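Protocol step 4 of 6: structure prediction from sequence.
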Amino acid sequence: MVVYEYSIIRFVPKVERGEFINIGILLFCKEKRKLLADFYLNEQKINLFESDLDFEDIISHVQSFIAIAKATASNNPVSSFDVAERFRWLAATKSSCIQTSATHCGLTHDLDKTFEKLFQQLVL
């Protein structure tokens, strides 16, 4: 068994209203030095909320967030942080259109299966 931490990635259409839509998951395991991240945007659901961003802008912001998590954002210095620092930076409280929930923890034998289960339960 390994300890993992996860945070739900949220789209916040208007920060001042405090409304959000779950759009993804970050899952971090210190022991395995692994950070998993993915997202799903439901355009119909997102369009139910008033936002100053169009759907293409939202996609771009979320893709940048995920690229940092996966350390593939070559134009962002955070992408070069070690896995634990990247997770902490991404999961930190922010006042932006892409935010994360509080961090939760658990135990698992299989990080990938746990990630998929959380993604199904909390995002889709």
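Step 5 (inspection) to follow. The two ends are 26 Å apart (CA to CA).
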